[in-house]
Amino acid sequence: MKIAFIHPRYPSSDGTGATYSATQIVNGLSARGHDLCVYCPREPNKQAQNSNLELRCLTGNSNHPHTMTRVNEEILSRTNEFHEFDIVHSYLMRAMPSIAKISQEIDINTVVTLNAYGGVCAKNDLLYRDKRECDHKSTPRCLSCILQSGRNTDTNYFYETGSQVFSLRLINRGESMRQNIDVYQALSSHVKETYTHFGFKTDKIEVIPNILDERFDIDHESNFTEPIKLLYVGYLKRTKGVDRLPEIISKINKKSDRVFKLTIVGDGELRQSVEQACLEREITDIVEFTGQIPNEELPSIYAEHDIFLYPGRWNEPFGRIFLEAMAAGTPVITTNTGSVKEIIGNAGVVTKQSVTSLIEAITSVVNNDELQTHSKAAKREINAYTESTVIPQFERLYESII
């Protein structure tokens, strides 16, 4: 197949999980013999330019100050180019208006990936005023949310607000034309259910998960003996539940006869307050803050720990961190958010949204000697996320609409 793939940045670029996931798809399809042309919103680096992929830059035809509005204009300026392809696949949700218009004008087969909530939410998190999950949208309601959110963060409020207003404009445009897109790829059943709730046709959404980064598929190194080493990896903010970590590690050591330690990998807006909470609870001797760690060093960090603990509040669209922990054979204990149950399977325990429930889950698997069982299960569960399993799902998706 000849495939035009619209990348969030460019292959081999550092960036968000979406950037890396898009690169995995591109490389996987190319390895299976498909003819790919990757459209890049940013100028590719030398590593990308030296690859076997054909790259085309989405630059030079628009000077719009809003990034995604500019990308849409750049895509539309290349409408005639897309005649040469069998499939146009955008990994950018907010390119929906331009992809829909191209599909309408030249009758090309189109796919848009729903890798988060940016297709229906200008803030991309579906948190109404940063407090509770949003369950319906309208332009006045969304504008109210945009204006009230983000006031207490370190980001430039006026810049973020303006950007989100432009994003809402794109969302509304895409909403009026979304029927022109042939099929959507959702990362999980939760993402599919969310978009269906917001008016997308369920029979147009296919669930294809993220691909495992096989660098994390290494032998587990801990022996699940004391001290039991807990690990958190991710951004340090409230939606991730990191403010719960000091209370969890403090109470579990008081409640249990076992000794527990905690490693917190990552940085973010709550780091100072979480460090202060550890100081006040006098647990700095059993909690280590590493800050951000290079991605190539993370596999061994997972493998050295006994439990990956995720106390999140927000419904993650997918959560690559779960695959990373599972690939290293590290059992997962997490709150019930998004589609985490279907992702981890028997690789750990999913529990309620409370510190008490998380503590009970940790002590239960440790006291019942279940860590080794979950570790072995994790190694089996990751087979569903390997490149050899996932890439054929994209091929079948493309074939279904050609």
Automatic annotation (TrEMBL):
Cited SUPFAM superfamilies: UDP-Glycosyltransferase/glycogen phosphorylase
What is the name of the protein in this document? Glycosyltransferase family 4 protein
Species per Swiss-Prot/TrEMBL record: Halorubrum ezzemoulense (Halorubrum chaoviator)
- Domain of life per record: Archaea
According to the entry, every stretch annotated as the Glycosyl transferase family domain falls at 221-380
Q: Where do the Glycosyltransferase subfamily 4-like N-terminal domain residues begin and end?
A: 17-213
Pfam families for the chain = Glyco_transf_4, Glycos_transf_1
